[in-house]
Amino acid sequence: MLNRIIRLQAVLKIITNQTATALELLAWQSSQMRTAIYQNRMALDYLLTEDGEVCGKLNLSNCCLQIDDNGKAVLEIAKEIKKITHVPIQTWETTWSKDWWFKLFGGPW
């Protein structure tokens, strides 16, 4: 039974670490997409300067572009997940070891 629990613990640790790695990759991709979107918006604003930038061209009164960058927070959460799942290696020790026999009967017969 203990061996099954240890195996389950190992599988759970692998799954959790893979999930944390996926979160890290998504956070990095999100930050890169945010940067690319801002760069494209700046280029559009520059090209449409005479028309009042993007908002003026589209006749929008409330046209503020704001994309929150939560990538750092997600990376911290992923790091905490990996830290929580770390469990030292556990081994099975039976009560019928040699030491037990010698402790019970005081040595060899």
Automatic annotation (TrEMBL):
Gene3D superfamilies: 1.10.287.210. This is ENR1 protein. It comes from Crocodylus porosus (Saltwater crocodile).
